[in-house]
């Protein structure tokens, strides 16, 4: 990987990481709502979104630094992972918390006077372990919709 591309990726991941903290701070203090009043309607989802961004960018900052120190940043296909995984992690974090709050994923949150600490923490963990969460989500989806069982039954019926 070229030196300038490494610098761009490191800058991008750092901006996502520190920008996520800044955005949560601005949400927490209400500074964003003063200039953009419609934010109050989606504020809770933005907490999850930015927590996922922090988790996803932290993991990929770690991976980037680790691969850099091991001199293993020679594959140009890896830059796509460093760019897109943190973006995917943000939306996935929001979806994960929504799935949990809807009751589809069995984790129960405790209310703490309108402060969603547990939900924000889950969003961070989902962002951090984005690829692992998506793999588990795929397994749950297969079980929920029973794609393998139905395909086997159909092939048994057509073979008889």
Fold and architecture overview:
- The chain is mainly α.
- It has one domain (3-159).
- The chain is built from seven helices and no strands.
- The chain has helices spanning 3-29, 31-35, 43-69, 78-102, 117-128, 130-145, 147-159.
- Helix 1 (3-29) packs antiparallel against helix 3.
- The longest helix has 27 residues, at 3-29.
- The chain is flat, with a radius of gyration of 20 Å.
- The relative contact order is 0.13.
Question: What's the helix and strand layout?
Answer:
Blueprint: H1 3-29, H2 31-35, H3 43-69, H4 78-102, H5 117-128, H6 130-145, H7 147-159
Helix pairs in contact: 1-3, 1-4, 3-4, 3-5, 4-5
Would you summarize the structure shown here?
This protein is 78% helix and 0% strand. By secondary structure, the protein is mainly alpha-helical.
Keyword list:
single chain, 7 helices, 78% helix, flat
| SS elements, strand count | 0
Overall shape: flat
Total domain units: 1
Main sheet?
Answer: none
**Which percent band covers the strand fraction?**
under 5%
How far apart, in Å, are the first and last alpha carbons? Answer: 56 Å
Radius of gyration: 20 Å
Structural class, judged by helices and strands? Answer: mainly alpha
Unreliable runs, pLDDT <50, ≥5 residues?
A: none
Order of helices and strands: HHHHHHH
Total of DSSP H or I helical runs spanning 4+ residues:
7
What is the typical, i.e. mean, pLDDT? 85
Helix content: over 70%
